[in-house]
Design a protein that fits this description.
By secondary structure, the protein is mostly beta strands. It has 2 helices and 26 strands. The N terminus is likely disordered.
Amino acid sequence: MQHCLDRGQASRSHGGRGRALAGLGVAIGLAAATLAGPPARAAGQDAPPNRAQAASVGQARVEALAAGLSHPWALAFLPDGSLLITERTGALRRWRAGTGLSEPLAGVPRVAAQGQGGLLDVALSPSFARDRLVYLAYAEAGRDGRLSTAVGRGRLAEDMSRLEGFARIFQQQPKLSTGMHFGSRLAFDRDGHLFIALGENNQRPAAQDLGKLQGKLVRIHADGSVPAGNPFVGRAGARPEIWSYGHRNPQGLAVHPRTGAVWLHEHGPRGGDEINIPKPGGNYGWPIVTYGMDYSGRPIPEARGAEAPGIEPPVYYWPQSPAISGMAFYDADRHPQWRGSLFVGALAGAALIRLSLDGERVTAEERLLADRRERIRDVRVGPDGHLYVLTDAANGKLLRVSPR
């Protein structure tokens, strides 16, 4: 079976008889353990991961602000209330109330728009008011045709028409992708460090290899240099950029507005989408540990089950994957009924998921926009307190969402 292109996309383009029976029994047992989740824990042990619960169906007011976007991937708000939107096919555009979408901005790097690759995330410098720097994550081709993620930055011109002096500051090495699992979300923490969430390029073992940048969350300075406090600095055979590892294909990254902690979510295979709060040096398991299985219905070959010693458990997981993309904490005053929620887009699940939080624990799940049956690629909170959502389609839309 063809591997998933963000899952929902894939469905269109996701010694003898005794030994054989014994092998089948092991495979069935692993699959059952993976789907059922971890075994019950004894009293005194840490609480098990918070498994997805039955979701309620919520109602929301939706305003379509723009259409005609070519598989939009991410958005970022500018200080004047307008916003930048990336299109996976390679364009960066600006939307402004009253004037709509601009023509593509000049000065954007050439991208490898293949499979899941192309122009991906966008983020503004924490010092944008002074330096006007815009950061882009994108798929980049090597000489042998293999791809990986790169990140660069350029200055947004005063007339908003172009990026000036764009330069690459980070490359995922080595280049292993044939068009899948780029990850590629960006987030600045409170100290100005840039976190980059990187997929494993559909090369499962690479996520556990500290000498490779596949399946990693990395932390760098805004200029691309490596902070001295990173957990693997000075360790032989390990890339110093790595913050955490064992990730599959993370497409959500956000900083908690109250604690300052970086939260990440990632696609599982067939089942097992996860939310994690990555610790420095933490191993998040892929492909050794997973709550999912291969798209063929067979166990992941390397998997030992749903937990293993030395593996950090997720904060929350879905046994049936909604194919999550985009993530935003809601801490605005405009809609108090949403304050303290975590919003996550769903591609295959075609919904906007609202998670109610009690600290780091999810207490309820609500599905919004499900009646629209549109793939949600990104979600952000606007300066006006509304949610802004991108739908992933050849005729993608920018939507403004508020409670009904």
